[in-house]
## 1
Amino acid sequence: MKPTQSWGGMKGRESRQEPVYWKQDLHAALLRDTQFLCYGQGRSYGDSCLPSGGTALLMSPLNKLQNFDAQTGLIKAEAGLSFEALLDFIVPHGWFVPVTPGTKYVTLGGAIANDIHGKNHHKRGTIGCHVQELEVLRSNGETITCSPTREAEFFAATVGGLGLTGVITVCTLQLIPIASAFMDAETIKTTGLDDFFTLEDESARDWEYSMSWIDCMAHGKKRGRGIFFRGNHAKNGDPAAEFTEQAKWKVAVPFQAPSWILNRWSIRAFNELYYQQQQTRVKKGRMPLDPFFYPLDKILHWNRMYGQHGLLQYQFVLDSKRQQELTEIFDIIAQSGMGSFLAVLKKFGDIRSPGMLSFPRDGYTLTLDFQNQGPRSEALFKKLDAIVLRAGGRLYPAKDAMMSPELFQSGYPLWREFSRFVDPKFTSQFWQRVSRG
Amino acid sequence: MVESPNDPVVAIFGASSGMAFSVARIYAQKHARLFLIARDKQKLNDIERDLKARGASEVQSLVADLGSAFGARAATELLRQRTTHVDVVIIASGILGDTEQLLSDPKACEDLFNVNVQAPIAISNSILPLLLQQKSGVLAIFSSVAGDRGRASNFVYGASKAALTAYASGLRARLSESGVQVLTIKPGIVATAMTAHLPRGPLTANPEAVAKRIVQAIEKRKDTLYAPGFWRWVMAVITHLPEFIFKRLRF
Ligand SMILES: Cc1cc2nc3c(=O)[nH]c(=O)nc-3n(C[C@H](O)[C@H](O)[C@H](O)COP(=O)(O)OP(=O)(O)OC[C@H]3O[C@@H](n4cnc5c(N)ncnc54)[C@H](O)[C@@H]3O)c2cc1C
């Protein structure tokens, strides 16, 4: 018995940890105990991946492929397969995941349970949009095979369903073709939020990936300045050969954690530096996959650098008409002096998310991470919560550790309907917290 | 996938073991023709699908009980009916056992020696004529660092692996002029289902990394492989500690 831990450093209640190697072992396990939650690679920040006692089913050993069609890019695999292992296999064949988060250390099941989004939301929506079929094992021993057309409601509950509808055992995913393992990327230094708004709209058509890093310590005239990133998969190349080359570099050049992270001497200084390091307005370049998609993965346990209290993330989405509230939020953060190394701003497109509890929807999403400073952090989050609530926005459960039941329920109006599909033996600390009242 | 005569033919006894499966995945990507032998049909099916999806040019599953010399000989017979040529034979079946139980339960102890010693030796003995006739091939036998010196915590398991280590080294000497190579694989603690109940420490290796080294060792026709490599030095120290010190180290 030991507590599971989330990426933000939150500890769960004690639970039995049971690695799952074979699908058939799940049946026996589900009969034995009375309470469960699946655990992928624990890359969720708060308590949505923490079991509330009972058994944590560790899913990552369950990672076998079932089928792969190199012509159509349709792949069927067990849910514990990591994006890392998946990419190692598919990239040499000229395929890529349709949607990826900022780390490749997540499992397919975990990604689907949070209906994750990437820098290409405006082009491809969420991962759930590309899931063709799921097999879900319920605690009564029943396996439900669902898809957008078969058991469609159950599918809508399971995609983005925070692991509460049962164990996703097998997923079928449509991949996207790539002609190269390189990215054509551009970074643009922006002067403020208006600049960002314009660039997002302008890039939406011709660029697969876009987002912006914002210097959230800058205020006054500099408010909202940052670096805008956009990229496309390179048009010509040889994915297999290029990917092998990239793998060699990884071994040859071990990355040193930059001292700004280790020392924490000043977020302001870092943000200033990071902003100023780019001399010209526009920089263009060719980049391997990993530094483009997963810059933080180089530093394996960077989350630990936030000290023993861990880190808190805060990610919300606001309707695109709510630029005023967005500005307000930047002001509050700058004033709070609590700052954030990582403030990422992105405009979601209008592709509908398939899940009842999916987070993404049309509008602006901002992700911030803060060192956990207890009551000080709570006070800041309360202020931000009030604005998000007033603007009719919502927070991302995968990143959340403290939203109120009120905020959750107003942000996710389908939550009651969703709860009809919750497996009676499944729950999480998050769910116990937000489904009250 | 179209089979080509150059695709390596690999037979794996105990194919559902975590390490053997990782090795099989590497061979699948090299378009090998794979023969998988294990007891559990459902597990074999799952593995077979994975290996096919990864590019194996052929996968055949043979259900067999590798819990006795008799079962092992029958399994080898099954294999010989399916193929007349084999490039790599991997013997990976084995159980860890619980030392307390092994000491008090004679049946458990007998079973462990049946699975870990009798069966592998029977497989090896009965596949040998084919290898000798081919004058080629690698026989890779999973022993363990635990066989290098008996440790207070798992010496019954260690004893069974010591038997295999001795068997393999003798066989290697005997076959030295035959064109057939014998590889003794000595893994440390690897994160697989077999060790899932043990705490994962800094010495715990991941099966993918170990598998890569195993395939390399097979290709380079090595004699003995410690995996990960540091175990060679750890075990060199441990096997040379004087008994009066070693017996006080209850590790
Ligand atoms: C550096 C970093 C960058 C990130 N960037 C993004 C981003 O850009 N976009 C984004 O959307 N997210 C992002 N995330 C969050 C991350 O993608 C999600 O939290 C993801 O779901 C984590 O996957 P996991 O496998 O670790 O699952 P866990 O965190 O272990 O679990 C997540 C949820 O999935 C459930 N679950 C896991 N496996 C199964 C299964 N087999 N069946 C049923 N339920 C299951 C769990 O019960 C839990 O509710 C980021 C996280 C990090 C650390």
## 2
Amino acid sequence: MSRDTLSRPEPAVRKRARKDTGSRPRRASRTEARNARAAAGFVLPFLALFGLCFIAPIGYALYQSLQKTERAGPLGLGGREQETFAGLANYAHALADDRFLTGFGRVLLFGAVQIPLMIVLATALALLLESASARGVAFFRSAFFLPYGVPGVIASILWGFLYVPGISPLVKTADFVGWDVDFLSRGTVLWSIANIVTWQFTGYNMLVLIAQLKAVPGELYEAARIDGAGAWQVARHIKLPLIRPALVLTTVFSIIGTLQLFAEPMVLRPLASSIDSGFTPNLHAYSEAFVGNNQHVAAAEAVLLAVVACVLSFGFLRLAGGRAKGHR
Amino acid sequence: MTSNTVHRRTVLGGAAALAAGFALAGCGDSGDGDGNAPRERKKGQKIQLTFWSWVPGIDKPVDLWNRKNPEVQVKVEKVSAVNGQQYAKMHAAIKAGNPPDLGQIEFPVVPGFLLDNGLLDLAPLGAARHRNKFFGWQWQQSVFGKGVYAIPQASGPMGLFLRQDLFDKWEVRTPRTWDEYETAAKAVRKKGAWIETFAPTNGNRFSGLAWQAGAKWYGTHGDTWIVHIDDEPTRRVADYWESLVRQKLVKTIPDRQNAWYKDLQTGAIPSWVGASWGDALLVGNAPDTKGKWRAAPLPQWKAGEQAFANWGGSTTAVFAGASYPKDALDFAVWLNTDPEPIALLIDGGYGFPSAKKGYATTDLDVDKDFFGGQAYSKVFADAGAHVDTSWRWGPGVDTLYQRLGDAFTDALADGSSFRSVLTKVQRQTLADLKDKGLKAESGG
């Protein structure tokens, strides 16, 4: 988000750059070397951290996903353990696991419903808050954003209390009016989780969209108004097309976030008999690693998850980009 | 759900920590080598042992030990026992090569730790001479071949907790057999309550019920593991509970969670097939029902039989690579056999002692008032004396429980039979063991 809003004042940066090149003829090589050194000084700490915290674990996960443990000794106990090359056996194992694949299907269904819903909701809120006649903008903006400040685990515990029968005032109220509702049954629990996620992230997405809306030059609105456009037409023909990049960005983030779905089902699992150990691919990998102690399979699953996230988000970017070009 | 930064960061952080851990493990392996003669403490040398435990009130006996043994100080580090987190942590520490000296480990997971080469064989240190201080079958839970891999601490003989006041009011007799239990369930249901919940994810209790029925899920033959989950006794248990579920005589909510506690408080669930350590749970979570509960023996399959089982129970194990194994063993034996620490552990509510001596059954009636003055521990002592002692655990019981939970969850959702759960889990468990590089066969 911030990257996008920051890239707005680009012309100014370019101007400065041009000025720099203007001084070039004099001491070009020395300045360049100094600049390069300074740049390296700034970039190196980032690269080191990036390598250590990002590249290394990914590389290690890849390596682990290609290994397996071999055991010897009586009953396999207390004997020697050996790591050997497994080829793609762990991947085959993961892909042959119904529960893992079902988990993928589940998060895709989840994303197909929850992401559009949330983005539409966030856009509507952003447009409403940024409309000329809106009052108490600052208050509502903070209020809608507030849930994002609640960590996912806490949010899930909080909603968990609202879902569990016997404790939940929601269930009690529903019971009172004769509506037999079970938020945690096999059919509903996915949507109960969708509700938590929507509650948490709508305000955040709204803020991203607002940031982009703020960057729309006022003259455009003036011109539209002079041309006789109403509020709806301004929103439809000016605001929406101009916040398109922010919409694409929030959607991509949401796609990635959906595939990473973990904390909510993990926290609700003990409360709901309907969430199994492979409810989402992430939960499945966790279970493999920390319950089954099969780190190698878990690593393979993590890699597969990353690949799918990559394909889906780049696929979506491609799609959105292609459409944009078509429009022009 | 945009930019799930929290998740991503945690996952990455975890991955980095794991990576670092594995790297360390590599170093540790090469350093130790094979000829790791256990280090011995010199006379007068002061050492410190770390002990990972979650047992309530463990600090008190450890403080006592520290006062009595200034040279061997034990430091307790509390670990979370929620959803098996303590074992995830211990396995990770073993992989990372920096486990604590001692750890609290339940009976069923001992073989899983052996698979990781995580536990020290205490036999060479002379552990076997303590054998007679413990109940034989419990001692046997952590003996594999000639190795002794943990010192038993406590067990959980199973019984039936019930709200005597409600049973009396509703004119329901305390069931002595599973047939009577079903009759009672019907009577209770007529009063608008449910006799129990069948928590699909509680593999622990299900295995206890299978144990009572005479199942033997794991065995060994030479160097091959024999798996026998889909056997006749287990099928009988599965059929029985499936019938209760399908007749809607029991709930299917998870146990030991808020909704369940609420049902216990309100009498919506007036009984619980539990274990000896369940007294503390009831007292802690349904304090207003004080004086109304009683404990009764587990219902039997045949009237007059005396078949019981065990749910839970743990050991004090010494991890491989412990800095001073001999002292760690001494502490573990003292903790679980000396009358003083046993008394302190009983006060904390740790379950049923594994030691034969050093306490009286009456010591265990910590919450006598809660059970209307009943000497309820007698019920569990009798059950403990009649537990089928040939039951053994195999590697990967955590996975087995998860498999059972997942399959029962499916069965409840799609209406498939509980027997099909057993067939599926039997197949999966065999595959799991083979995946771990073990020899495994289907039993019988």
